[in-house]
Amino acid sequence: MKLFITVPREVIKQPLIAQVVLETGVLINVERAHIDSTEGWILIDIPDAEGDRISARLIERGVDVKKLEKAVIHDEYECVECGACISICPQEVFSYDEDYHLVITDDRCILCGRCVPACPHQALSIRQ
Amino acid sequence: MEKSIDEINTRIRDGSAVVVTAEEMPDIVSELGEEGALREIDVVTTGTFGAMCSSGAFFNFGHADPPIRMERLWLNDVEAYAGIAAVDAYIGATQESTTEGATYGGAHVLEDLVSGRQVELRAISKGTDCYPRRTLTTDLLLDDLNQAIMVNPRNTYQCYNAVTNQSDRTLNTYMGTLLSNTGNISYSGAGLLSPLANDPTLSLIGGGVPIFLGGGSGMVIGEGTQSSPANGFATLMVSGDLKEMNSDYLRAASITGYGVTLYIGLGIPLPVLNTDIVRNTAVRDEDLVTSIVDYGVPRRDRPVLRTVTYAELKSGSVEIDGEMIRTSPISSFSMARQVAGDLKARVEEGAFTLALPTMRINNQKRNRPMRETARTPRVREIMNPAVVTITENELVKTAAKKLLKGETNHLPVIDREGRLVGIITTYDVSKSVLRDGDALTVSEIMTKKVVTISADEAVDLAAQRLEQNNISALPVVDSSRHVIGILNAVDLGKLIQRRWQP
């Protein structure tokens, strides 16, 4: 599962992820992150079974943790299933089923946003 | 055995015609054989749904009181061509809004009208004795127009190149986003369902043939613009009544970095008259071959990387140089199926009869490139061949002297063999003086990733490259990266200004 961590100013300089990895032994995969001097966010991927434990540890360290769900907003009316989103997504979120209908596996999404401008029908947006 | 079009139409009218889609046909022919399929099947329906930029519609708005001869007009701020007098106009799908740019265009006006939404018409005129009115503004619905006739000059390509991008920059093209370094492959077309792929000799498709267009009925006018049947790239000019269409099959799109286009559903029912037609309509994706072309090369004739079948393209990945590259279409196969299926139902219901072309299309024609009488200037013609360069190990101080003496802001840096290895600018030199004095060498302050151009490229490409990289000069290099000149934005600006001055 993916967790979206918002890091407030007070703890921005701490090695949050490294500490949680050492304490729990869980391999945390940092998929995207943005940190500057005043605030930051980190998108991590962890085994589903470890969700509660990792969330709890992170929250103890003073960050806000949200489980990433339904990251891709898909406008089914605008979408014509042209497939322009399929090959440009680095996470392979989009695919066709056997009947060439678009399937969105959005638990893979890392919020990169590349699909948004790539859709000719403006049918995709990313939940912020 | 042969069947006549009249026999087939009689069966359609009495509801006994056997109709299948072009997707069902190959297996039927495999099972029944060509003669068997000819006996069993009366009609094969085809369909495609994709971006068809060369589309638009003629309108007649009716006369206002006092009347106006519209000289220029806009529908929701999208200009339509009014040079056809009085209250007629043609709106092109790709024309962009004067107020909203690439997010709204002619295609959106068409979709709005078809969806029953109101559109604002604005028109201006100089005023004449017979048409005294000078300005006009009114809101119109599709029902308010006397005629709204879609006429698409170039639709439903028989086949289209698949594209990739071997350059190091992501490209935004009419084929969608093309990731850098062969990051993906984009293709278009419905493959085995595509109308012209099922009649490659144009024996059945020609002027006067009834078609499904945008959910309504229409017909083939004849050969489309840029049609090139002799090498498998035929196109059709088609027409249909916009008032019969619906937004399931007519959708505006806006492709990032390219602009507005229209997605439209087009299907053609083919009568099964003889075994040649059976064979043609039994085509499979495995039989349909196209080329993968590198759009990283900004020229008309782009390098072909390999040939590929639609079956391979649809599989989701294709090998290029030993690497599996992901593919995706920009046209909708599920919608193409829906077009062919909807058309099949209409023929089965007896609502759609068939006709042979009243005017055949010449299937030997080949498209030609433009004859250009004024050749686009090449980089070689405006570059400065007396380029001042410097080598890596010289001092920044030497660079400063050269910059001043050469009255230039850019010094290409070369190695011992004269090959380009970097560039420094007056800005780099000034910055280095502030930082570490003038004891540094050129290699310590130079930019190593240099944007270059070759001498035989068009100056337009040079202009685009300068703009994209936000730089003001381009070293001109030969194939072994020897610096043979420098192209300055100022010289380029002068040239382009001269070219476009009336």
Provide tags for this entry.
A: 128 residues, alpha+beta, Alpha-Beta Plaits, four-stranded antiparallel β-sheet, two-stranded antiparallel sheet, 27% strand, elongated, B: CBS-domain, nine-stranded antiparallel β-sheet, 12 helices, 30% strand
Plain-language structure description:
The complex is a heterodimer of chains A (128) and B (502). Chain A is α+β, with helices and mostly antiparallel strands and 128 residues long. Chain A has 2 domains: 2-67, Alpha-Beta Plaits, CATH 3.30.70.260; 72-128, Alpha-Beta Plaits. Chain A has helices at residues 16-24, 51-60, 115-118, and strands at residues 2-7, 29-35, 40-45, 64-67, 72-74, 94-96, 102-104, 124-126. In chain A, helix 1 crosses helix 2 (51-60). The longest helix of chain A is centred in the middle third of the chain and has 10 residues, at 51-60. Chain A is elongated and about 45 Å long. Chain B has 502 residues and is an alpha+beta fold. Chain B has 3 domains: 5-52 and 151-348, no CATH class; 62-145, no CATH class; 379-500, Roll (CBS-domain), CATH 3.10.580.10. Chain B is globular, with a radius of gyration of 29 Å. The model of chain B has no long low-confidence stretch (mean pLDDT 93). The interface between A and B is medium-sized, with 22 and 30 residues. Chain A: Residues 70-99, 100-128 form the 4Fe-4S ferredoxin-type domain. Chain A: It comes from Methanocalculus chunghsingensis. Chain A: GO terms for molecular function: 4 iron, 4 sulfur cluster binding; metal ion binding; oxidoreductase activity. Chain A: This is [Fe-S]-binding protein. Chain A: Keywords: 4Fe-4S, Electron transport, Iron, Iron-sulfur, Metal-binding, Repeat, Transport. Chain B: Residues 383-440, 446-502 form the CBS domain.
